[in-house]
Amino acid sequence: MKSGEIARLLSVDLKGDGDTEIIGVADLGNAASTDLAFTESAEPIVSKAGLLIVPAGFPASASTPIIRTENPKLLFTRAAKLLVGQPAFRPGIHSSSHIAVSAKLGNVFVDANVIVDEHTRIGDDCSIYAGVMIGRHVEIGANTTIHPNCTIYDNSVIGSGCVLNAGVVIGAPGFGYVTDAEGKHHQFPQLGRVVIGDAVELGSNTCVDRGALGDTVIGSGTKIDNQVQVAHNVQIGKNVIIAAQTGISGSTVIEDNCVIGGQVGIGDHAVLRSGAIIGSQAGILPGKIVRPGIWWGTPVQPLAEYKRQNARVKGLDRLAMSLKEIKKTVDKLIGQG
Amino acid sequence: MKSGEIARLLSVDLKGDGDTEIIGVADLGNAASTDLAFTESAEPIVSKAGLLIVPAGFPASASTPIIRTENPKLLFTRAAKLLVGQPAFRPGIHSSSHIAVSAKLGNVFVDANVIVDEHTRIGDDCSIYAGVMIGRHVEIGANTTIHPNCTIYDNSVIGSGCVLNAGVVIGAPGFGYVTDAEGKHHQFPQLGRVVIGDAVELGSNTCVDRGALGDTVIGSGTKIDNQVQVAHNVQIGKNVIIAAQTGISGSTVIEDNCVIGGQVGIGDHAVLRSGAIIGSQAGILPGKIVRPGIWWGTPVQPLAEYKRQNARVKGLDRLAMSLKEIKKTVDKLIGQG
Amino acid sequence: MKSGEIARLLSVDLKGDGDTEIIGVADLGNAASTDLAFTESAEPIVSKAGLLIVPAGFPASASTPIIRTENPKLLFTRAAKLLVGQPAFRPGIHSSSHIAVSAKLGNVFVDANVIVDEHTRIGDDCSIYAGVMIGRHVEIGANTTIHPNCTIYDNSVIGSGCVLNAGVVIGAPGFGYVTDAEGKHHQFPQLGRVVIGDAVELGSNTCVDRGALGDTVIGSGTKIDNQVQVAHNVQIGKNVIIAAQTGISGSTVIEDNCVIGGQVGIGDHAVLRSGAIIGSQAGILPGKIVRPGIWWGTPVQPLAEYKRQNARVKGLDRLAMSLKEIKKTVDKLIGQG
Q1: Which of A86, B289, C256, C318 has the most CB atoms less than 10 A away?
Q2: Tell me: the pLDDT tens digits for B264-273?
Q3: pTM of the model as a whole
């Protein structure tokens, strides 16, 4: 693709040669003369890239054509889609897959050894990869991709344009027990569903349990990393980001646009208000209401408080020494007295 | 099912209309006139539920039939089983599954693409879902359910009435290495088994490694949530509860009826005495013996100590200020002296 | 196998009867007269073992033949391989597996329901177990074992002599997004590969994401436990040990021979210098450079500092009381003044 054509398809201005042949994308350091690269700094740079996406204020160059934009990383992301593209969609159902007669599949790609059970509906342009097991009465929208070895339990609802990476488990019963007088644990009814919106992406081996008496809900545009645990009746809003290995306990509410780091633990029935940002490894107590802002530590505190407290703890040696000195001085005063 | 029949099947007294038609269960807020619901509070409530399970002292109502009981949540759990039930057990072996000739299967349901390898025995009324891989010399009791895409390594033993959710891995070699003089790591022999009792439930993507020279053991009635790691030679007692993403290191002993929160880390060779309750995200050092009671933090402390310490740390600002003032006073005294 | 033959095959000296028949391995307490066992202590012990591997200085015994060595656990590990061995390698491809015509497989064992997609190459003596899904253009060296239900995405490279336990996911897209002005998240290109060296072992349900614009790399001899998360563009050196449930964020570098405990969280772009040892549940901030030595806590500190700080915090009660007393004394002094 020529540099000028890329600019035209992205509806942006090109400064410099519009005939440079671009065939790939790369980071600045590794880019070759046929690669598109980007920088977020306005400082002039040396790069072998054939085309650069740069921020406003970046100086024009005689040798390399540039595209100036407010958000170079975002434009690079869009350009990469043009240049690299996805493998072509190949509709068809592999002969080794088992599709129930009552299931309704659109124009889909279904790979080998897939199971689709009774009364399940899958929209057009979906790709269901090998070894995926989809239960009964499941609904999947259009253009959703499910990677190998995922398991979707009965009654789950998944929207359009979603991506489930390998090993994801949707709709298993939640972890809720009632203990009898003899100490035996009886599973509380886990009868709800998982309802996932559109454009949701789930990382490998992530688990989303079905609700107990209501549903577990993940809003559209939310992106979840690998090995995350979403318990029964959790309500996650739209465009939320959740990094790897975070665990969210039952009935917790995470409002739109929250950002949650990795290995965070959130107790049950907590509420994260829209705009809350939670640092990695933080712990949120059950029932806690977390206001917008940046939060760290266990139990979570506003970042500034967390830092001040950390500094105080680090200063304990000095504080103890200072106390010792004062004590000595006071003892001397008493001696003089 | 009529309200009177439900009471009769549960062997409890009904106050009010015995002819109300009940077809489902719901929580108080969402219950319709054909739903059973429950409350744990004796305060009068407004609910559209057709039948209520309530604690002693809950006032009778003209409109809604009630069942009084000591533990409403437990009775509701039992009632829900009557009303909702499981999908009918459909014995049979799917033609796409591969069952070794030397394997002995009872009256079981085996879904598509299941592998059962040589000399493995599976009891009556088991359901083995699609994509499950069961190795050699495995023994599985009666009425156990194994959800899709689980892997059971050779020689594992699983009791009766167990539930393994999707993606569970049983019996993989433990993580034990001996390092040679050149820094290379050699796997220490991992020759033991996993032995799981009856009525054990394991959450999705949970892993239980086989023992090194002995066995890894999980006692009957124990319930384990999603993404939990149980290392080699761990001994877990009966009716233990372990929440999601907790990791238990090698050779640790967890006695009967312990309750362990989510994301807890337990070092190797620790011992949790029966009745120990461990708060989420807590860390237990290797070799630590944890007495009965509630424990929090890393390293774990009794909850009361953890709280006092937390308060002390939060009070450091005030303590530092107080020290400063005393210093000033003392300096003044010296100046006067 | 006779005790003398074992010593001969290991090229070590035997003290005592060379004709003792040994058929298995066990730990000291459970060993029978036909078992090999080991001890790392030079103290005399009572054991029924038929052959003992012991450290220098261990006293000779009339009843039990012994082998003295510098590292008894290492020699025991080697001896166990002789005695127990692996199940025989049975080359062949199960008829239910789907191997693309363009894939090139050596003399391999491929179990049921395996998918090997186009242009993928697998070396001699590999064992690929049931339900494994291998994408396109994947390269796998010789003598590598992939346990059931693993997923290997396109373009991944795996060396020789590796072991991937059940449920491992290699090469899924990394978790990188660019947010637009409306708060929508767009996946940054995830076009790199995963490149894994030789003799690498990965625990069950562990995930290794592919690089964004470069590769994610794991060096030869590195051993990784269950449920570990390795993000895009992470560079792990040789002979590294990583325990269960640890998460490593994007672009972090872990140099050769590091040892990382369980549930550790490592922020992005951190560097762990060769010889760094990280205690379980530790947290390493993004960009942090960790020198060789033992590190604990969140954020990580050298172990000695962590311990001193912990002691200081535990001593806060006493410190506060001491301050109170001084204040009282000072107040009295002022009163006298």
Answers
A1: C256
A2: 999 999 999 9
A3: 0.96
